[in-house]
């Protein structure tokens, strides 16, 4: 069954000022696919300490999205599926890494799978997912365990990561917007102590993402949207609060 | 059109923990070249690594870096140094130790002014957001004396005044060759300390511990600084 209401996704990454200062490229990656009424999104944050963190993030995000779509052909979107997808992603990643050092490809991985009825979110590391209900209520979903956003996080290639992943499965019908982000974007959008997303900020971000012209591809926002989001992530308002790489994916029902 | 330019500073999340700000005012003039600057850089990395281990410190401690010396812009000739805001205040969780290079002379006066201006802006921001903060610390680390007479002694007097008005606590620290007599005029609360050899790593480890402890205290309260014997030279 197709999604009765089409989701539009606006997403962007921006290199953090600390990375730019050290001549490092952005190590955040995101991926998304929509098929048969299912929307799958992933964000991954290559560890700053990992030599090939960006490659690790790239592989993790892209493979997880593909694997999730395949898994959903036979299984419902639940916690079992999320962990199976994480394990399959890890297996593929390890095979791809070959005889190189897995730690050189350390990356976090946040995965969201959305069908008409269900939203399932799995979180390996310190990414954040924020959902808005139709009544306007805003909350974090599958939030990282406290303390993990500080400095020590865990990665897909960390032993036990698949078991340690934080998972949440909620009915999707009452949701009208979903955001995924890496920890760099959480720094300015979520009160990390209260673990509360900024209502004012997400109100404006989701309004921005919803304000889009009809396009043939439901995944594609109106022209220039992603660029505007990237500019915002690189603006001084944001870089005053965070100097890490930032990634934001904004999915809204059009 | 719901554009993102409508997002203001106030819309962004701000963790509401009280803040413990620390300004590092660092001499990167030519005389700091070689071992001293390398040890200073290594020390900053120690600070970054150590302080990030404490969850509370990451939420509460903030750090900013102003350097004086170094190479200025393209139009800068004759070994002139400049005062530079290398790092505006950030949570230590977001702090990445820079790699500083030593060159130029010692415009300490303009650096003090820049540091105090940066501090004032940060405090305005705290007040605007209703955030409590502990009295800011300012560590001035140098092996020389100011080479910008146009800012001197006004900048030094401004620093003392700011300290007297409880706006900042100044810690003058001399590296080998520093004039401790001169440094003694920069704070009425803390006598200048002389760094033992190039014990920057020990100093920054101490600073991490101190700032972490201070951040867990009540704003407006006081706390006991840990012993400085690891890095401060004791006169015999």
Write a concise keyword list for the protein shown above.
heterodimer, A: about 250 residues, five-stranded antiparallel beta sheet, 12 strands, B: about 240 residues, alpha/beta, seven-stranded mixed beta sheet, 6 helices, about 20% strand
Provide a quick synopsis of the model.
Chain A is α+β, with helices and mostly antiparallel strands.
Give your account of this protein's structure.
The complex is a heterodimer of chains A (254) and B (236). By secondary structure, chain A is an alpha+beta fold. Chain A is built from 8 helices and 12 strands. Chain A has a 5-stranded antiparallel sheet with strand order 1-12-9-6-7. In chain A, strands 2-3-4-5-8 form a 5-stranded antiparallel sheet. In chain A, strand 2 (28-35) and strand 3 (38-46) form a beta hairpin. In chain A, helix 2 (53-71) crosses helix 3. Chain A is globular, with a radius of gyration of 17 Å. Mean pLDDT of chain A is 88; it is low at 147-151. Chain B is α/β, with parallel strands linked by helices and 236 residues long. Chain B has a 7-stranded mixed sheet, with helices on both faces. Chain B has helices at 35-51, 55-60, 108-128, 154-164, 180-183, 200-215; strands at 20-28, 61-69, 82-91, 137-142, 169-174, 193-195, 232-233. In chain B, strand 4 (137-142), helix 4 and strand 5 (169-174) form a beta-alpha-beta unit. Helix content of chain B is 32%, strand content 19%. The chains are: A alpha+beta (254), B alpha/beta (236). The A-B interface holds A 18, 21-22, 147, 150-151, 187-194, 196-198, 200-201, 204-205, 207-208, 210-211, 228-229, 231-232, 237-238, 240-244 and B 1-4, 6-17, 52-53, 55, 58-59, 88, 90-91, 93-94, 96, 98.
Question: Given the C-alpha coordinates, what overall shape of chain A results?
Answer: globular
Helix content of chain B: 25-40%
Query: What would you call the structural class of chain A?
Result: alpha+beta
* Biggest sheet descriptor of chain B: 7 strands, mixed
Give the SSE order of chain A as H and E letters: EHEEHHEEEEHEEHEEHHHE
